[in-house]
Design goal:
434 Repressor (Amino-terminal Domain); 36% strand; 2 domains; seven-stranded mixed beta sheet; alpha+beta; 381 residues; 6 helices
Length: 381
């Protein structure tokens, strides 16, 4: 949950009025107006003083860190929902890392998401993101289905930005096993409202989401070596590329090729370049604080070869994340693993081996994802 939502709940639970909170802050030598407190809990602005937020935790009688931890750009951590997975502890350089560093091509990411309306993204709580990634029997194309549940932490929010990667990206070697010759992605529940153009969460799939997810493989490495125009994005965002039929030369992003079966919303502006696609999903109504929205969409099929991983890049906290990898046909990978990473340049840390069932699928379920990359990788015989 983002800061605004956590603060609003803490105030409601305390039974204190904003005037009483202002008065108690004043007795501690801290001057904060009622209007400012109102803005903070509605997500219209954020505190700049950590001292004030520490005092708020004491006044509202919530555990230390309940609010202060949400001031920082959290490090990538994933608390397992099901047994057998343990996420690594945050590293020393995780806090304060720009969202765009979650992607291999930060400049391209910043340029694309900067052309979209992300004014409400920082006021959206990401309740859940569910990805279903399907790899065809010949391992020559993939399809991504995304379902995201959002809740408004402020008023007048009408859209979310999504980013996905489809071009080849060469990623750092996998510390949990043999390096995969590919790249990586997240649901940009999408779009981080930051000066550097960060987007929320996205998935990257394929060679290279608003949430952003990424898929990588041998073909991805080849593609990235031959193409200088490769990008990645995050958020409740979706990634598509030239192979998806998007007109990359069009600044208006008028086409929706590659983005299919949009449900409970409609596509807004679309921008695509160099294997990276960012787009707006406009809700079917304008949200007020506390309102929820569900968006669903599909991307693909995208023609790519021999993918060996899929991941999502989180720039905003998400309560619940589920990724399902569906392998069509009778040939299944030898092993499947969950993994996390701090950034696009960081090594992957394996969480544990995942079971591939008789349905030909494997799944990873994690809760309380804060920031970073979470995904699944597999090894063929």
């Amino acid at each position: 949950m983002e800061f605004a939502g956590a603060l609003r709940q803490a105030i409601q639970a305390s039974g204190l009025t904003l005037e009483r909170i202002r008065h108690r802050l004043g007795r501690r030598g801290l001057t904060v107006s009622v209007a400012t407190l109102s803005y903070w809990q509605r997500g219209r602005s954020r505190p700049r003083s950590r001292t004030v937020v520490v005092a708020l935790e004491e006044i509202l009688q919530v555990p230390p860190g309940t609010l202060t931890d949400l001031l920082d750009d959290p490090a990538p951590t994933a608390t397992p929902v099901r047994g057998g997975l343990t996420a690594g502890a945050p590293g020393p350089g995780e806090r304060g890392r720009p969202v765009r560093d979650l992607w291999p091509d930060p400049e391209r990411y910043t340029n694309l998401v900067g052309q979209l309306d992300r004014s409400g993204d920082h006021r959206l709580e990401r309740l859940s993101i569910h990805d279903v990634f399907r790899l065809d029997e010949a391992r020559r194309s993939w399809t991504l289905s995304v379902r995201s549940v959002l809740r408004a932490a402020g008023d007048d929010i009408d859209r979310v930005v999504c980013v996905h990667q489809t071009g080849g990206i060469q990623r750092p070697g996998n510390t949990g096993g043999p390096a995969n010759p590919g790249g990586s992605g997240d649901l940009l529940v999408p779009g981080d409202h930051e000066p550097d153009g960060a987007a929320e969460a996205g998935a990257t799939a394929g060679v290279g989401n608003a949430s952003g997810a990424t898929v990588t493989g041998a073909a991805a490495a080849t593609s990235s070596a031959t193409s200088s125009a490769t990008g990645v994005a995050t958020g409740l965002a979706s990634v598509t590329g030239a192979v998806a039929g998007v007109d990359h030369a069009s600044a208006s992003g008028g086409g929706t090729a590659g983005l299919a079966d949009v449900r409970y919303c409609r596509p807004g502006r679309i921008r695509a370049e160099g294997g990276l696609m960012a787009f707006e999903l406009v809700f079917d109504r304008v949200l007020s604080a506390g309102d929820t929205a569900v968006v669903e969409y599909e991307i693909g099929p995208i023609d790519e070869l021999a993918h060996d991983s899929y991941d999502r890049r989180f720039s905003h906290p998400v309560h619940d994340y589920v990724a399902i990898i569906q392998f069509d046909g009778e040939r299944l990978p030898a092993r499947c693993y969950g993994f996390t990473a701090e950034s696009s340049q960081s090594p992957r840390q394996r969480l544990g081996e995942l079971w591939i069932g008789t349905s030909g699928s494997a799944n990873l379920a994690v809760g309380a994802v804060r920031r970073g990359i979470v995904g699944i990788e597999w090894e063929w015989h």
